[in-house]
Every structure is written in structure tokens, then in C-alpha cells.
Amino acid sequence: MAQGKYTVNEVEERTGVPATTLRQWERRYGVPKPERSESGYRLYSDADIGDIRTLKAHVDDGVPASRAAQMVGRRAAAAGPRPLSELCKELTAALVDLDDARADRIIAEAHALYSVEDVVLELFQPSMVALGMLWHDGTINTTTEHFASSYVQGRLRQLMSLSGSNYAGQRVIVACAPLDQHELGALILAVLLRRSGYQVYYVGANTPVEDLADMARAVKPVAVMISASSIDSVEQLMTKRGHLQGIAPLLVLGGNGFNTDPRRAELVGGRYLAATAGDAVARFHALVAEAASPSNGMRA
Ligand code: B12
How many Å lie between the centroid of ligand 1 and the Cα of residue 130? Predict the structure, then answer.
């Protein structure tokens, strides 16, 4: 949700500072910093009102306005960067409001302050889970969910292409299980793998296992990684496990369908590494080194 909720007249009433002075302070000293509504009106938050009261108190004590504004600005900066959990709540609210311009600003702030890995795992992932839960419980409708999912997918694809493919790197195919439309986990995994130097073939949602086996024969990856977000998706893989045998030196299985019971991975004939893509990629490096070592053979 946006923080700004008071108009300039309401702020004048609450603080006793005339609207003209408020605008002057903003123009000259950058304090306060109200948001703008879609139609361009200033909207002040509770924090802005706090800053205005402090500024007024200093000015009433005889401190020049420019110096008082510096004191208030320094205090705000000392509060430090906003945590990703706070940005996550704001991103979720912006997407529920169908406000992609606001979402862009929140993500820009996150990228300026945190690593790509932290942004995808601690901003995009929890925000998508929150949005998905709102859809699952009927709070938001399908169009809102599709808008939000496709927005986040777009941002992840952007990150994937910005990371650049390492054409000399070891090859990995990333796909979702047959009939599985939950694509965001697999996309996050693909981004992190690319950033770790692998040449990633990202296939995406709802991938038939027979076709995946054909692709693996052509591409010869060191690993095929499949995401299954539900038990139904795990069952799809179970029924097709014949096609998965020997598909690549490593068959790695993950996603919610395996997180709820990692033993299912063995039944499908693959390896389970971890519940989040970040931890899974860290373990994957060691496995690849092991699989590539001649003394260990090339087992899935
Ligand atoms: C968002 C969401 C949706 C969105 C998906 C949008 C999209 N384009 O991706 C929509 C609304 C479309 C959707 C639809 C459905 N959903 Co849904 N959905 C979710 C929700 C809330 C979040 C999933 C998500 O995006 N998470 C964010 C990503 C980033 O996290 P993640 O997938 O867990 O991935 C991380 C890790 O698991 C890991 N990882 C993932 N894959 C892999 C693979 C490998 C190899 C490795 C190493 C790691 C790894 O790395 C990722 C990053 O850390 C989950 C509940 C939940 N809490 O997870 C339910 C959930 C997965 N959905 C569920 C269901 C039932 C459905 C529907 C059948 C509902 C319906 N009645 O139509 C449909 C199925 C559509 C289909 N055929 O696939 C159930 C599945 C239950 C089960 N049986 O197991 C869940 C668990 C909700 C629930 N509790 O009931 N859903």
C-alpha cells in the first residue's frame, strides 16, 4: 500500500504549517518528500508529518529553515535502507492495485540496495507466494493474479538476459513438470544458475517429458532440472519416469511438490537438493564437480 494518505490541506490542519510554506520547503530543501497521486496531487505520509513537525519546531526555536531541513534529512538517512520484507509488502500491494509504475519504483529501490540473489529470493519469491495465496483464497481475481505473475515473470526474464549466457559454461536444462503452470520458481532457479556461470536452456511451464528427453539428447546438458509445484505434477513425473532415466548425468528435482516430501525425488529417479533455489544452486556446484570427475562415473 502507498504510504501517502494526507492531502496538503490536511497536513496544514494537522501541523499548522501553511500549504505555501510546505511547498516552498519541499522545493528549496527537499523536505518533506510527499508521494504524488496519479493525478499529480501531493500525498503526505505519517513519516512526512513527523518530519514537518520536527522542522517547524526547529524553525520556531530560531534555527534557519535550511539548517533545520538538513537536520531532518540526516535523521531520515540514518534510518538506513528499508528491509526487503517492507519492500515485499509494498510490491505485493502495488501489484494488487495494478500499479506497475509503483512496482517499478519499488524494484529499482531494491536493486539499488541489495544483491540480485536477495532481490529474487526475498522480494520476488515471497511477493509471488503472497499474491498466489490471495488468488487461491479468492481475495483477488484471475486477471489480477495474471497481471502480477506476468509482471514478475517479465522482471525475471529481464534479469536472465542481463546476466548473459555463458556459452562456454556447462549446460543445464530447466523445465516445469507436465501440466505445471507454476513457472516462477523455475525462472528464479534459471536466473541464479545463469549468474553462477552455467549455460541455461530455460524451457518453462508445462513441459512434456518425452520432448524434454529429445532436447537433452540434442543439447547434452550436465543436468536436467525439473520443477514440480504440486503433488499432481510429481505424479505426472512418476508415470513418465522411464523417459527420465539417464536423461543427463544429473536429474535434479525441486519445487513445492518435492519440498513437502523430498523422498519423492528418489521415487522419480532424481536428486533433491534444497527447498530454495539459492541453497539448491550452492549444492549443485559440488554435485557437478563430482559428476564430472571420471572416478565417479556419470550417474543421474
Ligand atoms: C502463485 C501460485 C499459483 C499461480 C502460478 C503463477 C505462475 N505463473 O507461476 C496460479 C494462480 C496460476 C496457480 C494455479 C494453480 N495452483 Co497454485 N500456487 C501458487 C503459490 C501461492 C505460490 C507459487 C509460487 O509462485 N511461489 C513462488 C516461487 C518462487 O516459489 P517456489 O515455486 O516454491 O520455487 C522456489 C523453490 O521451491 C525452488 N524451486 C522451484 N522449482 C525448483 C526446481 C528445482 C530443480 C530446484 C532445485 C528448486 C526449485 O526454488 C524457487 C525459488 O527459491 C503456491 C503456494 C506456495 N506457498 O508455494 C500455490 C500452489 C503451488 N498451487 C496449488 C494449486 C492446487 C494450484 C491449482 C491446481 C489451483 C486451481 N484450482 O486451479 C492451479 C494449478 C495450475 C497448474 N496446472 O499448474 C497448490 C498445490 C497443492 C498440491 N497439490 O501440492 C499450492 C501449493 C497451494 C496450496 N497450498 O493449495 N497457482
Answer: 11
